[in-house]
Amino acid sequence: MKRIKKILFMSVIMLTCAFSLGYADEDPDYSAGKNDGEEIAIIEGAEKATLDFKAGNENDFKAARDTERELIERLDLEDEDRKYKDGFWDGYKEKFEEEYKETYRTLRLTKFKDADKTGTSTTEKSDGYKSVDMFGGAVLSPDTVVTLAVPEGAVFLNNKFKMESSNNDYAVIDTQRYIKVTNVYTIIVEDAVNLYKPAPLKFKYAGPDSAGIYRLVKNKWEYQPSTIADGTISADITDDIFGGGRFVVLIDKTTMLSDISDSWAKSEIEYSLKNGYLQGYEDKTFRASNNLTRAEMLVIFNRIFNWPKNTLIDLTKYEDGIIVKAWSSQEIRNAIGYGIIKGYADNTIRPNREITYQEIEWILRRALKKDTFRWNTVAEKMLEEKQILCESFESMSNRIKRGEVAYLLYLIKTNQI
Fold first, then answer.
1. Which of 127, 223, 241, 384 has the most C-beta neighbours closer than 10 Å?
2. Could you write out the DSSP letters of every residue in 370-388?
3. Do the beta carbons of residue 282 and residue 254 sit within 8 Å?
4. What DSSP letter does each residue of 5-21 carry, written as one string?
5. Mean pLDDT of the 295-323 span
6. Domain map of the chain by residue range?
7. Which of 335, 278, 275, 276 is nearest to 308 (CA)?
């Protein structure tokens, strides 16, 4: 009897598995998604493995591959059928791992074989690379559109750079907002280098002042503070350790705000506006001296840190949860769920209260995972660089201003705090 029951149990399990697998294989939406995911992964797995190998990074496909959420957002798949998205992710993650590993191993094997043939490592071969040492040098794209000017004293020893051009966007470019001006240019460094001085990156350019150089960062195009002059547009590469990267020139079609040209934080405000971290008012002003509410600040920080989406937090359990506006409710849930804020002792979250320097300090300690973070570090840097005396020196209970937030965000995104 026991044997019969065991056979029946195993039969049910096998039928269930067969049904589940067959359902996925036969469903047209799932199959279409899986095929599309595999096609994208074949391209991106090889590209990211090549970039990691050239930059001297480890063979780590998990670090290079998007999460499912990042992939769906980057490729704008949010409105697709659930089965299609499931298939897309299944196809992408499997094929990405396969292509990444194969490409990385092939590159490593080729390097070793070349070294055996020549008696030298590939870092000693030209292979299209430009050698740059302590005396500096210029690295040009093959079409001479782009120049990386490495100044004297910026690097030491002998370093090899080269540049490649491609019409591949590599990540979504919002054509409603941007006009793509150039191809995407990839700077490849054979071995990541320490940069002791900023290295200007210059594109030949003729066009409106609303253009900027954008850099691919975590599968998103991020604006780099840019200067237009004498037929060029330029931005400084300031990485402490530079392993290469991808760059493109885009024209931002949105109207620039009317009250930032004379602001002490003009470049930082432009940086945040062009990257979508901050927004202006309907009357096309920025109002750098205005304060922000706790809800506004949590929305902004969510854009910067991309906290995981949380649908389980019930805001109505807080005394003032009912007053939270729809435009900030999800970001406040994310902040609570990720442990960024906890609410006050009286069981309120006070979304409409203007946020203080002290509260900014507490939030960033958690968001940056730096218990030693102090707002005064930002205030002192602001005073030294911009000659702006922050009101936090008077009291940490004073309210932060929008111009100061722009400055803060720039420091965060450029790893200066």
1. 223
2. -TT--HHHHHHHHHHHH--
3. no
4. HHHHHHHHHHHHHHHHH
5. 94
6. 2-118, 126-252, 266-413
7. 335
Provide long-range contacts, Cβ within 8 A and 24+ apart, for 177-181.
177/252, 177/253, 177/254, 178/250, 178/251, 178/252, 178/253, 179/250, 179/251, 179/253, 180/248, 180/249, 180/250, 181/205, 181/207, 181/211, 181/248, 181/249, 181/250, 181/251
Helix axes 28-54, 82-118, angle to 10 degrees: 30
Residue 43 DSSP SS3: helix
Instruction: Report which DSSP code applies to 416.
Output: -
Give the chain's end-to-end CA distance (angstroms, integer). Answer: 70
CATH architecture group of domain 126-252: Sandwich (2.60)
Is a pLDDT exceeding 70 seen at residue 372? yes
For residues 221-243, one letter each, b for 16 or more C-beta atoms within 10 angstroms of the residue's C-beta and e for the rest, the string is: bbbbbbebeeeebbbbbebeebb
DSSP 180-203: E-S-EEEEEEEEEEE-SS-EEEEE
Q: How confident is the model at residue 13 (pLDDT cuts 50, 70, 90)?
A: very low
Tokens of 143: 């079409």
CA-wise closest residue to 93 among 49, 37, 46: 37
Pair 409, 294: CB distance under 8 Å: no
Residue 7 burial by Cβ neighbours in a 10 Å radius (0-12, 13-18, 19+): exposed
- At 88-121, the pLDDT tens digits run 899 999 998 998 888 888 887 776 655 454 443 3
The count of C-alpha atoms lying within 13 angstroms of the C-alpha of 339, restricted to the half-sphere facing its C-beta, is: 5
Alpha helices in 288-401 (DSSP H): 294-305, 326-337, 357-367, 375-386
Q: Which two tokens stand for residue 355?
A: 């946020």
> Taking the CA of residue 86 as centre, how many other CA atoms within 13 Å lie in the half-sphere pointing to its CB?
11
Four-CA torsion 385, 391, 395, 397, nearest 10 degrees: -110
If one counts every other C-beta atom within 10 angstroms of the C-beta of residue 169, the result is: 14
- Length of the chain, please? 417
pLDDT category, 205, cuts 50, 70, 90?
very high
Whether the CB-CB separation of 38 and 95 falls below 8 Å is answered with yes
Report how far residue 310's alpha carbon sits from residue 101's, in angstroms, rounded to the nearest whole number. 33
What is the Cα–Cα distance from 268 to 85, expressed in whole angstroms? 37
pLDDT tens-digit readout, 70-80: 888 888 888 88
Give the pLDDT confidence of 58-71 residue by residue, as tens digits: 788 888 888 888 88
Angle CA 296–400–299, to nearest 5: 15
